[in-house]
Amino acid sequence: MSQPEIVETAINAPYWSALRQGRLDYQHCRSCGHDWLPARAHCPACLDTDNEWRAASGSGRLVSWVVYHRAYAPHLAARLPYNVAIVELAEGPRLLTSIVDRPDGSGLFADAAVALRIEEDFGRPLPRFCLSQQALTAARAAEYFRTPRRPQDAIEERSEQ
Amino acid sequence: MRGKVVIAGVGNTVYGKHPGRDKIELIVDAAREAIEDAGIGKDEIDGVFVKMANAAPTVLYGQKVAEALGLQPAIGCALDQGGAANIGLIAYAALAIEAGMIRNALICYGDTARTGSHAVYHRPRGDDAIHGWYSTAAGYAMIHQAYRQRYRARDEHFGAVAVAARAHGAQNPRAHLRKPLGMDAYLSGPFVVEPLRRDDICLVSDGAAAILLTSAAEARNRRHVRAVPILGLGQAQESWEVHLRPDLLRTRAEASADMAFARAGITRRQIDFAQIYDCFTVTVLQTLEDYGLAPRGQAGEKALAEGLGVDGWLPFNTSGGLLSESGTPGLQLVIEAVRQLRGEANVQVKSPRHGLVSNQGGSMHTHATLILGAAG
Fold first, then answer.
1. What confidence tens digit (pLDDT) does each residue in B12-41 have?
2. Residue B243: its chain A contacts at CB < 8 A?
3. Considering the entire predicted model, what is its pTM?
4. The pairing of beta strand B75-79 with beta strand B47-51
5. Complex prediction ipTM
6. Contact A158 B130 (CB under 8 A)
7. In angstroms, rounded to a whole number, what is the distance separating the alpha carbons of residues A43 and A33?
8. A66 and B127 in contact by Cβ < 8 A?
9. What mean pLDDT is reported for chain B?
10. Which of B210, B173, B201 is nearest to B322 (CA)?
């Protein structure tokens, strides 16, 4: 499996175009007021197609996260360990992203405040996040949230037993 | 619908590795056993309901299976609801039998994801793959992490599920993995997608399973003494991807169980054992809580303190489940419930009256619930 490619369409082009301009945008329904990501033609709440793109403030909270110790595609091997996180924007929509300053997940905790940091990767700007100052203070004070680390050289598929 | 349709026969292959064998071949093996067990003639089957395979799925799959069985059924189909599809199919087949459209239905599922392709379990997840979002395990790891955070759950709470399933699988001669697991071994297992350790994750197996459904009236006419009545069926779907759900720790499994219990007309306390879909250990804790069998955040603590064996809090996955018997999604749990209610299980619960089975699929996207009564 090679590295992922994103196909830009009439529906999602404004999202990627905003990121190239340094903004994270989400969709807002002019009919019922619902806000969402990812890009869709229809509002999933009222099915209307009359929507607009709005700029997110860039602040959000961490909902959950995982840390990969196994590469499911060759291009990911050099990145291990890396995290993928769910972030809820202050405006409501949720997205999958990464917490860039904590690749191995250390110091992360549910509801931590996070701030947008747009980074270039795979040839396109991606919306990523880092812990906000306030969350960093909490993280330092709460080292007990850390999962104990274990040697990672013995990773094998569960079914190999 | 209560008790109008029965499970008249069950069959399954050995689970594990079947190199070089086709999944439809395995289904025919399991179907032969189920047909013989039911005492119903092969040519009396007029409904063939197949769960979509994970290894190399194809179009018109239900018809391929019917062809291999030499059948021209009234209804033949393949269903994709992920791991909830087997109980989903049982529901649609039972409705068709009750409506008089068909008389005898074969529900079957076979896969060769162990020695064949298991690419589906490792797949990139749409455009979010650009963030490194790959695999089935990762969606459950998100739920597992949320569970740990909200309830301050200990690793041993998840470990209790794996240890119980493996203890039961070790006693099942046709199980894929017959190696018991101790808590220390669970805790020292390496992370795959943290917080998931190796033994939080189910097997990937080859194998097949089949069951035969008929009406209770038909079973009486045939003087079938081992038919197990279907008392309640429920389904409900989450649909949203994990990250778009407003709450990762409240799923539609709750609505699925409510539907099944209402139809069965019994209470949670009347359940004598539970075969819970254990693709991951957190799925079991989440399902037990959504089903109303344990208070929120406490299923793991109860499992650890009171046990999940036949003498424990709730006899659970008595043939080993997905963690030990077979990673093939779902039908083995139904078959084990039938064997329990006939008094034929390897790890037998004492005289059970009511058995509960959960199926779910995706990353808890789909849910289905089955309640069965004692044979006879």
1. 999 999 999 999 999 999 999 999 999 999
2. 63, 86, 94-96
3. 0.94
4. parallel
5. 0.95
6. no
7. 9
8. no
9. 97
10. B201
